[in-house]
Structure prediction request, 371 residues.
Amino acid sequence: MTGPLIDDTDDHAAPDRRATGTRTARRRDDGTAAPWADRLWTAVRAGDEYAAVDTVTAALDTGLAPEAVLLDVIGAVQRKVGVEWAANRISVSDEHAATAINDRVIATLPRPSPAADRGRITVACVDQEWHALPARLVAETLRLRGWRVDYLGAQVPTAHLISHIHRTGPDAACLSSSLPTRLPLAHTAITAVQAAGTPVMVGGLAFGADGRYARMLGADAWAPDARAAADRLAAGPLPQPTPAHQKADDLRHLADQEYTMVAKSTTRLVRDSFRSMEQRFPAMQDYTDEQRERTAEDLAHIVDFLTAVLYVDSDDVFTAFLTWTAEVLTARAVPARFLLSGLDLLEEQLRDFPRARRLLDAGRAALASCP
Prediction:
C-alpha cells in the first residue's frame, strides 16, 4: 500500500528564472500557483506528458519562480495523486503514470550552477524506501538555492550510501522515508552516516508530522518539507554528530528483544494467520487467486507495521496505519472487519509478547471507533 506524499509549499514570481535564494523566491504561495497546478493535474490525468511539460514551461514564462513551480505546482499535483488513489478515484497504474510524468516535468526546470559559497549535500531515500519523489523535491529545491547536490534516488542500501559519503565528503546528508515500516532501516542509515562524521537531516511522513521519530532515532535535524530543509541548511551548518554509538542506545525498550523475535518470525506470522483465516472464514474458499493474494498482502502489511512499531514503541503509528487502511478498504467496498480478524489471529500467536499485545489492543480500539 502506498501512502500520501510529502507536503511542500512555496511562492510565486521571481523575474529571473535562474534567481535563487532571494526573499521573494522563498515567500509562501499566495495562490498564484493554484491555476497552474489545476492545469498540470488535467494534463497528468489525461496521461499527456507533452501538455504537462507545456504547462510548466508556460508557468515559468509568466514569471512564476522555479521553486514555486517545483513545490506549489508539481508538488501539489503529486499530493493530489496520493489523495485520489486512497479514495479509489484513480488506479495504481494511474498513480504510477502520474508520478512518472511529474518526474519528467521536474527535468524541465532550470538548473543553476552551484554557488561558490554553498556546500555539497547528499540526498537519498533510505534502504527499501521506493517513494523517491519527496527526496527529489528536496534535491531540486537545494539545487535551485545554489547547493551542489548528489541525488542518489530511491532504495539506497546503507553500505552504498556510506561508500558515497566517504568518497564525496558532503556537508550533510538528507535522508527521506515515507513509510514507517522503514524506520529500523532509517535508524541504521542515520547512525552509519553519523559514524562517518557527516550530520544527518531527515524528512518524510515516516518520521511523524512533528519529527518525533527523527529525534527518537538520533537524527541531527528534521524538516517537514523541502522548503524547511533548504531554510535550515541555509541558516548554518548542522551540528556535528555525537560520537559513534549503538542503535540500542537510542531505544532502550529494544532490550526486551520483542522487536528482534517478531522481526525474525514475520513470514511464519503471515503464513499461519492466513491459514487460520481460511479455516475460520469458509467464504475464503471461493476467493479468486487474486483475492487470496491481496488478503495475504494485507496481512503482511499489518505484520510489517506491527514489527516497525515494536521498534519505536509507538501506539500512534500502528493505530494511524490501521484507521487509514480501514478508510482505503471502505473506499474499495472491502469490509474493514478483516483488519480486526487479522489482529485477533496475530494476538493468538504473540501471547508471550506484552508490548505486541498492547499494540494489538490499541489497534482494535482505534478500529472500533472508525465509522
Q: What stands out?
A: The first helix runs from residue 34 to 45.
